[in-house]
Design goal:
With 179 residues, the protein is mainly α. Helices cover 72% and strands 0% of the residues. Helix 8 runs antiparallel to helix 9. The longest helix is centred in the middle third of the chain and has 25 residues. The two termini are 23 Å apart. The mean pLDDT is 76.
Length: 179
Amino acid sequence: PWALTLFLTWWAWERNAHPAVAAGLAILGAASRPEGMIWFAVIAALTALGPVGPNRCWRLSVAGSGAGIGALLLLRYATFGEWVTNTSLAKSDAAAWYYVRGLQYVALNALELVLPVVFLPAAAVVVARWRRWRPLNAVESATLMGRGHLAFAVATGGDYLPFGRFLVSAIPFFAVVVA
């Protein structure tokens, strides 16, 4: 459900969907993963830079999802006495070996999933084109979301399980870039 809600929220904001639908998807996704709140802030920022821009529907959906995610944070704090989950605290070690392990994770998964191989060069093209300011199109936004997944995998030190679990949620964005 995590990868699906992440992609559907991005798609809803890119397509200017009904604010209640987009906000509901963002809240559902934020509740399903510890880092969900961060990802939905990234999606909001990317879609604000897109052709739809921060219009009325976008502002309503971001405000609604922000209120819902804020309520989730308050509920988490009231229940557990912490603003973030225990898994987030456990993965917040910022030692150099942690990032090396994350880079190894991305490199090893490049052999199984083609995602890192496509997203790294595509992101360089997007950044080069973006220097001449203009709104991001859906492919460029999807490319940056995929790049964000790679950065997240590096920043968290990767995963101990095989099959690229941290990169699976980038597959729909990969499909948008390739299509």
